[in-house]
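Data availability (excerpt). The following record was deposited with the supplementary files.
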Amino acid sequence: MQDTPSNPAAAPKALRVLFPALGKLCCVALAVFIAATTVFGKLPAEAQYSIALTLSMVAVFLLKPGVFHGNGELTMRMAVVNSMWILAALGTGGYYLMNYYEIAAFREGIPNTADLTCYAIGTLVVVEAARRVEGWVLVGIVIAAFLYLAYGHWMPGVLNHRAMPFSNALEVAYSYKGIYGIALGAVVDVVMVFVILGAAIRISGAGDFFNFIAMRATSGLRSGPAQAAIIASTLFGSVNGSAPANVASTGVLTIPMMKRAGYTAGFAGGVEATASCVGQIIPPIMGVGAFIMSEITGIPYATIMLVAIVPAFLFIFSLSVAAILEAQRLGIKAQGEATTDMWTGQRASQALVLVLGFGTLLGMLFSGFSPTFSGLSAAGVTLFTGFVLPKTRFGWEATWEFLVDSGRDGLSVLIACAAIGVVIGAVSSTGLGVKLNQLIVSMGSGDLLPALILAAICSIVLGMGLPTAASYLMVVFVAGPSLMELGVSQLQTHFFVFYYAVLSAITPPVALAVFAAAAIAREKPLVIAGNSLRLCAVAFVLPIVWIYHPEIFLDTLSADMIGPALAVFAALTCAIIGFNAAHIGYFFSPLRLWHRLVLTLGAAGAVYTDPWIQAVACGMILLILADRYIAQRRTRLA
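Predicted structure:
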C-alpha cells in the first residue's frame, strides 16, 4: 500500500525514514567516539571537540528538522533547509579541524578570508542548533553576547570596552576562547561519559529500582507519596543531571500518586520539581556536577563529595519536613501499604546491577582513576551484569536503544555549552567579567552580604532556561573571581554558583522543571512555581549560610571544631523545622499569624553568626513548637 502523508508538502517516505535513521546513527557515532577516546586516549583538544560538536549538530538537524518549531512532519522545504545546515556543520567543523594547527601557529589574530567565512558560518550553525535544543532564551543570550563583543565600544559607562574589529569578534566566538572553550570541553571530556552511564542504568532496568526503593521505604507513612517522590527523584536526578528530564521521567508516577493521596496538584507538582533539583546536589554523582567542578578547579573529587553531604542533607530534610506538615494540615491519612510491588528475583537482579555499577564507580574514583575512565568502567560493568543476569537481560533492540540514547541524551547540554562559549568569550575578551567582578567586590567591601546577593541573582538570571552544567560554567567565570577576591574560598565559591545554577530550573519566568511538572499535574505553571519557591526557600538561603558558617563544609573539620559544627548543624535543623512550620501554617494544629511571624524571625536568627542570638532564636522556635504540641495533646485528651 502506497504511503500517503497527511501533509501534501511532505517529503517522500524515503527521506522521512532516512533523516531520523541517519540522526540516530550520528548519536551512536558520538557515543562510540566518546567511549573509544576515553579508553584508547583522547585526540588533541581541538580535534576531540570539533568531531564531537559536528556529530552533535548533524544529529540535531536530522532529528529536529523543523525550521521554526523544531519538530513535525518532514517536508521537502525542511529537508532542503536542513541539508544545507548539515553541509554547513560538516564544512565548518572539517575546515577548523584540518586547519587548526596553521591557524594557531600563523593566523591567530590575523585570520584570512577562508578562516573568517568558517568562523561566521560555524557560529551561525551552533546558534541554530542551540535554538533547536534549548529554545530562544539561550539564543537571545548568545546573540546579545556576540553583539556586545563586536559593538560594545558604543555602549555607555561601565559597559563600554575597547573597539574590536568584527573579524576579531568572529575569531573569539569560534575559537578556544569561545565555542571550543572550557564549557564545551567539560561536556565532551566529562559529562558525556556519565550520560552513557545513565543510559546503561536505564536500559538494564536498574533505574526502576530507584522507584521501588522509594515506594517500599515510604509505604504506610501519612506523607508517604510525597516522600517517595522526594527519594525517587533525588536518586534518579543524581544520575540524570537534568531537572526537567527528571520531572518527565519520575513525575508521571509520583505526581498522580501524590494527588490521589490528597495533596493538591500545585503542591504535588512543586514537590516533584523541587526534588528533581535536589538530585543534582546529592553525592556521589551530583548530576556530574562534582566531576565538572573537580575538572576545572583541580580539587579532588573526594573532597567535593565530602563537602556536598551536609548541605544536601539539609535541603532534603527541609523538603521532607514540608511534605510531612502539609500532609498533617490536609488531614491525609496513612495509606497502609503504598505499593503492591514486592521483592522479586527481578528486583534482586536490579539491585545487584546497581550495587556493582556504583561500587565500580566509587571504588575506581577513590583508587585514583580519572572520573571519565571510572564512569565508563561503571557503565561497562552495569551493562555486562545486566546482560548476564537472566532477570535483567536485554536484547539487540534494547542494545541499539542504549547506543542511540547514549548520544542523544547528551545533545542538549553539549550544544548548549558550545553556544555558552560565545558568552564566556565575550565576558573575558571585553573585560566585562573584570568590571562585574569589581562591582561585586565594591559592594562587598563593607559588607559581604550584598555581594553574595548580587552574585546569587547573576547565577539565577543567567542560568534560566539552561542545563545546569551550562549555567554553572557560564556564571562561575563571571561572578566566581569576585567572591574569591572577597575572601570566599574556591570550593565555597564554586558550590555557591552551582547551587543557584541548579535552582534556576524552578525560578520564574523560565522555570523548565516547573513547566514539565505543570504538564503532568494539569495545573497552572505559576501555581507550581509558587509552591516550588516556598519549598526551595531553604535552598536559596543555604549557599549564603555556609559562607558565614564554613563548619558545615566537612573538608576542614578538625577535632576542636566538632563541637561548634554540631551546634551550627543543630541550629540549622531547628531553623528548617521552624521555617517550614511557618510557611505551611501548621504544626500539630493550625498556627496563628503571630506564631508564624515568630517562627520566621526565629529561623532568621538561628542562622546568625552570633551563638547567643542563635541560642535565643532556637529557644523561640522550640517554645512555639512545644506549645503547639502540648495544645494538641490537651485537645486529644479532652
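Summary of structural features: The mean pLDDT is 85.
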